[in-house]
Amino acid sequence: MLSLELLVLSTSLYLLNPVNGTPLRPGQDYSSRFSPRTFHPRNYVTPDQRASSYDYVIAGGGLAGLALASRLSDDASKTILVLEAGPSGDAVSDTINVPAATYFNSLIGSDPYDWVYKTVPQTNAGGRILAEPRGRVLGGSSAVNGMYLVRPSKVEVDAWSALIAPNDQTAAKNWAWDSFFTALKNTETFTPPVADTESVAGIKYVASSRGTSGKIHASYPGYMVPISSAWLPTLQAAGVSISEDSYSGVNIGGMFATTALNPSNWTRSYSRSGYIDTLPPRSNLNIIFGATVERVLFSDSPVNGNRVATGVQFSTGQGTAVQNATVNKEVLLSGGAIGTPHLLLLSGVGPKDVLDAAGVTVNNELPGVGQNLVDHLAAGTFFSTTVDTQGSIHASGSALSKTPEFNSFVNSGVAYINGSLLFGGDDSFATFQSSVTSSAASSAASLVPSQDSTVIEGYKASYQTTSATIYSSTGLVEILLSLNAAGQITVQAALQQPLSRGRIYINSSSVYDKPVIDPQYFSHPADVVVLRQGIKLARQIAATSPLKDALGAEVTPGSSVQSDADIETWLRNTAATEYHISGACSMLPKEKGGVVDAQLKVYGLSNVRVVDSSVFPISFSAHLMTPTYALAETAASIILAASSPSSSGSPSSNAPASSTGPSTSPTTKSSAMQVSTSWLLLLLPFAMTFAL
């Protein structure tokens, strides 16, 4: 009887849950639609209700962690525990769900929903200490970011695969374009724009390049500010090609990007709402939020020379009692681009000198942990305007500003610019590229923050790939149209292929002390030159009709900043992160400073994998949300294949695992899901009503 009660209760809660695609009623506002919003009791447990052990323990319930958990739990025979340091997000569900809140009520910089990381002073960026925002909530950065869904190019993805192929050609195929393109499509359900949006913006798309049954909704806002109509004609007039299909491997040119938006109710689609809240009753998945993983635990007996993880140690706050979560199969690290290298270092996995200095026992000397850190830098040219922008309409408090359609608007006008256009022709760019490519050895000697020979070799490999292959084939700069300020329009430029590399390290053995983050922004001189050219192009675009006709005076950087030297100085004192940090647990051969192999396993550890953006060994000309979802989808296939006795450990395809229905719940110390018969009777009418 109890199992029936649980099934009906779970089904009732699923049907009552406000993220399953039910459209807003006419006149219904967000507060009535989404407040209160509760997490599914069938997935949530408190620390003392956890099972005695799990097949997989996932450290981090962010973008990748929840996607991975969902796909692994499709196999009802596997038990999964997710530990997330941040809160559930229920208290700020309206802010998370409403896309426009990204600009007008952002959680970025807000404790406890942002980790509030800071860099050390950046020598080549004006000595500034810069913010490095990272989401700290169920869903991670996918709950707080700008919602862009854009894809890297085929050239970049194939270059990634080629870097790891020497060690495992078969597994490396998962990261080549043909396979990864399938994974990219598997992540999303694409919905074409509504007629008004398509008409105003002149949106172009090819439906066959998009996914049809993935967990994340990909679409366009229900409302476009009228000035959006100037974007594509202006780009074309300025010499920028217009992309008919930027999602099939060639992303050069201008477009309106899709966003992570559910068009059935104009809300954010993110890893929690897409991968977790929509699950059918599933008792083999437990999630604990407010649980900070402090370190990975290892047995004293290596197997074939590799350390074996027995679980993780976690706590619910600084000074609280530590607790252990025991693992039967694997520990999966999905703490994000900063959190995962931080956790490995705290677990005694990393460069020996760093661990010794922090007072951490060395469990596995691995020099590449924390190295190869890379990030996109951005700066904007601001212009005054009297035309309507999203910011001015929002500030007006008009009836339009309160509609779900208006509040689904996020900036999505972008263009990815190649070197030839940036430098004014093929010959000029070829000269610049040649000088960059020829300086690989000297750059490695002077710029790599580690003196370890394997890390230096890895930098040389990624540098050569970037400068010789990627530089000439993909977007070096992203140009972005920003309309979220009142009385102002911004044309932003963002560096996509930086050659500067930094590192993450620790000076404390406590997880509650922040890691030291040093991206070494602009340490390679080519980076500031490329971004300078991007700013010059942004100005050129702003000076081109029809966008020009809507702009007044340039506010920033202003008329006094004109020479190349002046622009570079301004950039060093102005540019900031585009929130795309990655690379500090790179998928590279171990002899090239790699941290994980082509199957995402940490070198020297038999049963620990990394599944998040820290594994990308090179930079992509894209916002990282989409490739990170695809990474998680592929990782789930690899992990499930490895658990099959007859498997070689590499999946035959990137098709997501099929659900086999609910499984028996992990044995818990006390059930989190018990319900009385009286509650069952109360819920049955609701279950039947919502099932109609």
Automatic annotation (TrEMBL):
Residue ranges, annotated region (Disordered): 646-670
Keywords: FAD, Flavoprotein, Oxidoreductase, Secreted, Signal
Segments passing through the bilayer: none
Active site location: 580, 623
GO CC annotation: extracellular region
Signal peptide feature range: 1-21
Predominant place of localization: secreted
Gene3D superfamilies, per database record: FAD/NAD(P)-binding domain, Glucose Oxidase, domain 2, Glucose Oxidase, domain 3
Cofactor: FAD
Ranges where the Glucose-methanol-choline oxidoreductase N-terminal domain occurs: 336-350
EC code(s) of this entry: 1.1.99.29
Subcellular location: Secreted
Catalyses which reaction(s): pyranose + acceptor = pyranos-2,3-diulose + reduced acceptor; pyranose + acceptor = pyranos-2-ulose + reduced acceptor; pyranose + acceptor = pyranos-3-ulose + reduced acceptor; a pyranoside + acceptor = a pyranosid-3,4-diulose + reduced acceptor
UniProt key word Secreted: yes
Primary enzyme class: oxidoreductase
Cross-referenced InterPro entries: FAD/NAD-bd_sf, Glucose_Oxidase_domain_2, GMC_OxRdtase, GMC_OxRdtase_N, GMC_OxRtase_C
Domain of life per record: Eukaryota
Residues the record lists as binding FAD: 137, 293
Subunit structure: Monomer.
Assigned protein family: Belongs to the GMC oxidoreductase family.
Protein's name in the database: pyranose dehydrogenase (acceptor)
Organism: Galerina marginata (strain CBS 339.88)
Lineage, broadest ranks: Eukaryota, Fungi, Dikarya, Basidiomycota, Agaricomycotina
